[in-house]
C-alpha cells in the first residue's frame, strides 16, 4: 500500500500510555523493579481534568501512567473493564496534521484532532484516532527540546542521572492478542491505515495448544507489532487466558530491547524481578542448532536466557512473571486477574523482527484447556451410570485414561524431580507447604506444586481427557488444577508416616467456595492393597458433620491419629451410617477420583517396592476464594493465598493460570 506513505513518516515509538488504577503505586513498581525514573507529572493543576499522569523514563523508553480521579474518566472505565493495561500507543511522525488527515481519509475514526502545545524550548503536536480493541493510536510531532514531553501539560521533574548505562534501550515491539477470527482483520488495519507490511507469519503448536501469528512493521522498520490469535481447533493456552482475563483483545506485552541481555537479566534480578525458568535440556547441543553463541553457555543456562536464530543471533530472555514477593508494590495487583501486561514481557537483544525460536519454546502452558476429544477418548468418559455412582458413593475408578508410555514418563519425570531438577521454584515458601527433601530420610514423601515446578510432570498432568473425566463427575463446564502432590510411600511397613489416617480434603480447603472439588489419584504402576493404596469410606461425602469444631482444618499429619479414627466413628454414628471401607485397586493408567468430602486414608506399604503416585486436586470453574472465619478470629487460609495474583477486589485468585491452569473447558458448539 504505497499510497500516502510520505504523509505518515512513522519514525518510531514515541511513548506508551498505560491506564492504571493507581499511577503512583505503578510508578513505584516500575522504578523499584525495572529502574525507571519519574521525569514528569501532570494532573488537574496542569489542565489534565479528572486524571493523574506520571511520566517514566529509562533509556529511550517513555511510559505515561494515567489513573482516573473519578469513575467517569476513560482511564477509570478502562481499568474497570480490563485492569491495568496499555491504552495508547504513540508514534512519532514528521507531520501530525498531514498524517491525521490521511488516516481519517482512509477510514480511521478521529478521536482528537491535531492540538499544539508550546513551551519555552519545545513545540509538540498531537492527535488521536481509534485503533484496535480499546487501544488508541496517538500521533506525535516534536520540535525543539525533547525533554519537555508535553509542554504545559506534563511538568518536567528533575531526576538523578542513571547510574551507568540503562539496561534497557527502547521498545522493540508490541505483542497484541486478538480474538479468534480477527487476525487478518487486524493485519488489514495496520496495512490499510499505516502502510505497515506483513513481514512474518507462523502457526505454532506446543503441548496441544496452538496459535496463529503474523508480524507487521512500519515502512521505516522502527515500529513492529506481533499479532497473536488462538487456534480454535486446539485447547486454549496463554492467548486464550489473556483474552479471558483482559475481557477482549489488547496489548499482551512489550518487547524491550537491550544491548546486553546478560547484564539486563542480572540487573533486574537483583531488583527482585523473577524470570521464567528454562528446561536444562534446552541448552544441550544449543550451538549445533543455532551456531556460535557470543556468550558463555553456562551463564545463559543459569539465567534462563534463550537464543533465537535470526540474521544476527539475538539472545532473548522471556520475562514471564514479576515476583509478587519482591520488596516493591505490584502495579494493579488488585486487578491482575484481568490486566497482566506487565507480567508478560520480553527483553530482546540485537535485531528487530520476530523469529520462530522463542515462539516454539516448550514448557508449561499458563493457560489451559479445551480440546475436542477423539472418539476413542470419548469412549473413556464416565457413563451416566458412572456419574450417578460417583454422586452416591463419592468415588470413581476410571477407565485407562493414561497410556503406559505416559505413566512411565510421569515416573521418569518424578525421578528427575527427586534428583533436584526444577523448571522454576515457588517465589516464597507457603506456611503449610508439604515439601520432602533428602535430609528428611526414608519417610513417606509429599511434594506440593509439582505441576508448577516441573514441566515434565505438569505437561502430562494437564491431559485434557483427565479434565474431561473430572468435569463429567463434577458436572462442571470447566476444570482447573488446584494443587498437585507427588507421593512416594517407601516399602517400610513399620514407618509411621506410611499410614495416612482418615480425613477429607475439604477440611483443608475451607477458603474455597466450591463443594464440587475433587481429587484424581494417579499411581505410576498397578496399585493394590499390599502397596497401601488409597481407601475410601463409601458414601461419606454425604454425611453431615458434628458441630463446628474448626480444628479440623489442621492437616492430618499435625493431628493425633486416634482422634481422627474417633472423629470418623462419631460422624458415622451421627449420620446413622455404616463405615464401609473400599480399597481402590488401581491398574496402571487408571485413575481413582474422589469427592472433596469423601473420607479416605491409606495403610502401610508391605509390597516390597515403593508406591509412587500424584494426587492431583481439581477445582471446578466456579471455585473462588471465600472468607471463612475460624473460632480464634482468624480466617481460614490455603497455601495459594501467598502465591497467586489478586482479583479486582484484592482477593487471592484461585484461577491464576500460573498455579491453577485450566485443563478442560467445555465450549458450546458454534452455531450459525
Automatic annotation (TrEMBL):
UniProt cross-references to InterPro entries, sorted A to Z: 4OHPhenylPyrv_dOase (IPR005956), 4OHPhenylPyrv_dOase_N (IPR041736), Glyas_Bleomycin-R_OHBP_Dase (IPR029068), Glyas_Fos-R_dOase_dom (IPR004360), Phytyl_CoA_dOase-like (IPR008775), VOC_core (IPR037523)
Example of a GO MF term: 4-hydroxyphenylpyruvate dioxygenase activity
Span of domain VOC: 12-142, 170-306
Required co-factors: Fe cation
Keyword set, alphabetical order: Dioxygenase, Iron, Metal-binding, Oxidoreductase, Repeat
PANTHER family: 4-HYDROXYPHENYLPYRUVATE DIOXYGENASE
Assigned protein family: Belongs to the 4HPPD family.
Protein name per its UniProtKB record: Phytanoyl-CoA dioxygenase (Modular protein)
Amino acid at each position: 500500500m504505497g499510497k500516502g506513505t510520505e504523509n505518515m513518516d512513522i519514525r518510531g515509538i514515541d511513548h506508551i500510555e498505560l491506564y492504571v488504577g493507581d499511577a503512583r503505586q505503578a510508578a513505584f513498581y516500575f522504578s523499584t523493579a525495572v529502574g525507571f525514573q519519574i521525569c514528569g507529572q501532570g494532573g488537574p493543576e496542569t489542565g489534565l481534568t479528572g486524571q493523574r499522569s506520571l511520566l517514566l523514563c529509562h533509556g529511550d523508553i517513555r511510559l505515561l501512567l494515567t489513573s482516573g480521579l473519578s469513575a467517569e474518566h476513560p482511564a477509570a472505565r478502562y481499568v474497570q473493564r480490563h485492569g491495568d493495561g496499555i491504552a495508547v500507543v504513540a508514534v512519532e511522525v514528521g507531520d501530525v496534521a498531514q498524517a491525521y488527515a490521511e488516516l481519517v481519509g482512509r477510514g480511521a475514526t478521529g478521536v482528537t484532532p491535531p492540538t499544539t502545545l508550546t513551551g519555552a524550548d519545545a513545540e509538540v503536536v498531537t492527535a488521536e484516532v481509534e485503533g484496535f480493541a480499546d487501544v488508541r493510536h496517538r500521533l506525535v510531532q516534536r520540535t525543539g527540546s525533547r525533554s519537555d514531553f508535553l509542554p504545559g501539560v506534563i511538568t518536567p521533574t528533575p531526576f538523578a542521572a542513571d547510574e551507568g548505562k540503562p539496561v534497557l534501550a527502547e521498545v522493540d515491539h508490541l505483542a497484541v492478542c486478538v480474538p479468534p477470527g480477527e487476525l487478518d482483520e487486524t493485519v488489514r488495519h495496520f496495512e490499510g491505515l499505516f502502510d505497515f507490511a506483513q513481514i512474518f507469519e507462523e502457526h505454532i503448536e506446543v503441548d496441544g495448544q496452538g496459535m496463529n501469528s503474523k508480524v507487521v512493521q512500519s515502512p521505516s522498520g522502527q515500529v513492529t507489532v506481533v499479532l497473536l490469535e488462538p487456534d480454535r481447533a486446539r485447547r486454549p493456552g496463554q492467548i486464550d487466558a489473556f483474552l479471558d482475563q483482559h475481557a477482549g483483545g489488547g496489548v499482551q506485552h512489550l518487547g524491550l530491547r537491550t544491548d546486553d541481555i546478560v547484564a539486563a537479566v542480572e540487573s533486574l534480578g537483583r531488583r527482585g524481578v523473577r524470570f521464567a525458568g528454562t528446561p536444562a535440556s534446552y541448552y544441550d547441543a544449543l550451538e549445533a542448532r543455532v551456531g556460535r553463541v557470543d556468550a558463555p553457555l553456562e551463564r545463559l543456562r543459569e539465567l534462563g536466557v534463550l537464543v533465537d536464530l535470526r540474521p544476527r543471533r539475538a539472545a532473548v530472555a522471556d520475562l514471564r512473571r514479576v515476583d509478587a514477593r519482591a520488596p516493591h508494590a505490584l502495579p494493579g495487583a488488585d486487578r491482575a486477574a484481568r490486566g497482566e501486561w506487565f507480567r508478560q514481557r520480553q527483553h530482546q537483544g540485537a535485531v528487530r523482527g520476530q523469529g520462530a525460536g522463542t515462539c516454539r519454546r516448550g514448557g508449561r502452558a499458563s493457560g489451559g484447556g479445551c480440546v475436542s476429544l477423539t472418539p476413542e477418548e470419548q469412549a473413556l468418559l464416565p457413563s451416566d451410570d458412572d456419574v450417578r455412582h460417583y454422586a452416591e458413593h463419592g468415588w470413581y475408578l476410571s477407565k485407562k485414561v493414561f497410556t503406559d508410555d505416559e505413566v512411565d514418563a510421569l515416573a521418569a519425570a518424578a525421578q528427575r524431580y527427586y534428583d533436584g531438577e526444577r523448571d522454576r521454584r515457588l517465589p516464597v515458601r507457603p506456611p503449610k507447604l508439604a515439601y520432602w527433601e533428602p535430609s528428611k530420610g526414608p519417610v513417606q514423601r509429599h511434594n506440593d506444586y509439582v505441576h508448577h515446578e516441573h514441566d515434565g510432570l505438569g505437561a502430562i498432568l494437564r491431559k485434557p481427557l483427565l479434565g474431561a473425566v473430572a468435569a463429567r463427575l463434577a458436572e462442571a463446564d470447566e476444570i482447573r488444577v488446584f494443587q498437585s502432590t507427588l507421593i512416594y510411600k517407601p516399602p517400610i511397613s513399620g514407618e509411621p508416616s506410611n499410614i495416612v489416617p482418615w480425613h477429607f480434603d475439604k477440611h483443608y480447603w475451607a477458603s474455597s467456595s466450591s463443594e464440587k472439588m475433587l481429587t484424581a489419584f494417579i499411581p505410576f504402576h498397578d496399585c493394590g492393597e499390599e502397596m497401601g493404596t488409597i481407601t475410601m469410606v463409601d458414601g461419606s461425602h454425604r454425611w453431615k458433620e458434628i458441630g463446628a469444631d474448626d480444628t479440623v482444618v489442621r492437616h492430618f499429619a499435625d493431628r493425633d491419629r486416634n482422634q481422627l479414627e474417633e472423629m470418623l466413628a462419631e460422624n458415622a454414628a451421627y449420620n446413622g451410617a455404616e463405615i464401609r471401607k473400599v480399597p481402590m485397586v488401581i491398574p496402571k493408567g487408571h485413575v481413582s477420583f474422589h469427592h472433596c468430602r469423601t473420607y479416605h486414608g491409606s495403610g502401610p506399604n508391605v509390597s516390597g517396592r515403593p508406591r509412587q503416585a500424584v494426587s492431583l486436586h481439581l477445582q471446578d470453574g466456579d471455585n473462588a476464594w471465600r472468607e471463612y472465619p475460624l473460632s480464634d478470629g482468624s480466617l481460614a487460609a490455603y497455601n495459594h493465598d501467598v502465591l497467586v495474583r489478586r482479583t479486582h477486589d484484592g482477593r487471592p485468585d484461585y484461577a491464576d493460570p500460573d498455579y491453577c491452569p485450566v485443563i478442560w473447558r467445555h465450549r458450546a458448539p458454534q452455531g450459525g
